[in-house]
Amino acid sequence: MTAATTIAPAPQHLRALARANEVRLARAELKRQVADGEISAAHVVLECPWEAASMTVSDLLTSQRRWGTTRCRKLLASIPMSENKTIGSMTERQRTALSNLLRDPTA
């Protein structure tokens, strides 16, 4: 062995695990910020940060204080949207409708 030997890159499965862990930690931080009121769920829906793109709508809504599955389902039933829809796959019309409902639930 010489000093010039190169280190092989990490195997693909280890890179995938590292990326999954990075996404999990970023999502947990985003959920914490939503729960603490630092950022609103309506803002996350409109802006769609990278950590929220593959998150389901129900995950985001239930991360708010005093929001459970029943409240989430009732809100999403008022606009025809599945609770399993990812935030990144929402259309612009769906984004604005959901963010308007989150800002003013009486509308």
TrEMBL record:
Region (Disordered): 86-107
Annotated Polar residues bias: 86-99
Name by which UniProt lists this protein: Integration host factor
